[in-house]
Amino acid sequence: MTTATRSGARERLLATAGGLFYREGIRAVGVERILAETPSTRATFYRHFPSKEDLVLAYLRGVDEHTRAAVAAAVEGAPSPADALRAVGAVVTDDLADPAFRGCAFLKAAAEYPDPADPVRRLVLDHRAWYVATLTELFAEVFGGSPRRGRPEDAARHLAMMRDGAMTGADLDGAGEVGEAFRRGLEGLLTMLH
């Protein structure tokens, strides 16, 4: 078996598991279910993922990489820090409007892995720390030397909290309404805090 074949098998297993984890929950989906939906053997699975936890971590790392790339692209294409924050907000509202959207993969994983020492929970917390730090840097640039300058870390935490609410509320209240409320909240942070 070639490396490319093993890599292809790994990616198929990861894609199948990721879709199932996202739609149905991590703990609800077992290895048997993943194997049933991916034409693969148990030996192939365990060659690529020594445990289900390894698979879960790989899934969340993939979501993390995707999120970081989307945020980086949004920031790089923006003409100003305020526009960069709006572009990051657009990434959130675009996610909400996706028909396949089922909430935030990290919030869902955090609910399933509450132990702060668990590697899955630590990965979720690392992702969140990166996200808030990125927002903090952008708010620091927006606020600059304004005499009404707020604390950038407070604004970043506020925006992260609004994102969390949007991610959980969109399914209940509708992506359009929640997305619009999220955009208004972001504009409020940009205009009221500097």
TrEMBL record:
PANTHER family: HTH-TYPE TRANSCRIPTIONAL REGULATOR YJDC, TRANSCRIPTIONAL REGULATORY PROTEIN. Residues 7-67 form the HTH tetR-type domain. It comes from Actinomycetospora chlora. This is TetR/AcrR family transcriptional regulator. Keywords: DNA-binding, Transcription, Transcription regulation. Residues 30-49 bind DNA. It comes from the Bacteria. Pfam families: TetR_N. The lineage of its organism: Bacteria, Bacillati, Actinomycetota, Actinomycetes, Pseudonocardiales. InterPro entries: Homeodomain-like_sf, HTH_TetR, Tet_transcr_reg_TetR-rel_C_sf.
